[in-house]
# Entry
Amino acid sequence: MNHKGLTFLETTLIVVVIILLFAVFLPMYQKQNRLKLQHNARKSLFILYQLQKKYLEENQTLATEVHKLHFESEIKNDPYAYTIDRTNMENFQISATANLDRDETLDMWTINEKGVLSPKSNDILD
# Structure
């Protein structure tokens, strides 16, 4: 006989293979996307660090709020919130905080007045 089309079994196998591919590759894609967002946050912290140093040079004081530094993230709808946590003439700390995968753990990175970037909690590794 000359069959046109696929049997039910063949169609089911194709659907199962597609579902398995999604099950394997979707988490990998999501992790890569979160890593990209995290990389942008670390990069943004260095930019904020430089802007804070420039602000100090021009105003003889440190900015206490991020908007005073005229910072704008390179990523549209950046999930990170950027804040200046502590300031005095010798010390400051700027943080980036986000919940990248909607769990209890936040992704939080900080940079201090010496330009030292450090993770407070890493939502991707936890």
